[in-house]
Amino acid sequence: MSVEPLLNSLDKLEKMHKSLLKLAYHKTDLIKGGDMEALDQTLKDEQAHVLAISQLEQQRQKAVTDYFKAKGFASSGSNTVAQVIEAASTQGEKDALKESSDRLVSLIDSLKQQNDLNQKMIYQSLQYVNMTLDLMRPEQNQVNYSKNEARGSHLPKTNFDSQA
């Protein structure tokens, strides 16, 4: 069996991750600009991408499992592309898989870095908003008890005759 179905899956995953990375860069610009409506739409687009990537990942796993079944190896259910690279018949297949895998890993690392940056920017924006709200709120008066209230003499006097 050829590694072509696996290479196709890796290429599709690479394209989807590139698109997701573009959304992450766009999200950075939106965070800087403070456009919440566009940011909300971008988050929805990201969710759609993540769902598509999840489906492509299932296809990739199936391609790996099918490859091992065709080669007569026992499938452990958690076979990886690295294991396929080791088991590949020709050096050309090994090189093509390694190159495709390396591009995808590099792309995922870039995406992770961009998402970390976005997360930090959102956190800083939230800190700024909270600081601004704290400055705008009036300070609450501290409640201190006087000497008499602390001893309990602040109880109201009643006209109740206990001897009646």
Automatic annotation (TrEMBL):
Top-level taxon of the source organism: Bacteria
Keywords: Bacterial flagellum biogenesis
InterPro entries xref list: FlgN-like, FlgN-like_sf
Keyword Nucleotide-binding: no
UniProt key word Ribonucleoprotein: no
GO process annotations (BP): bacterial-type flagellum assembly
Region feature (Disordered): 145-164
Listed name of the protein: Flagellar protein FlgN
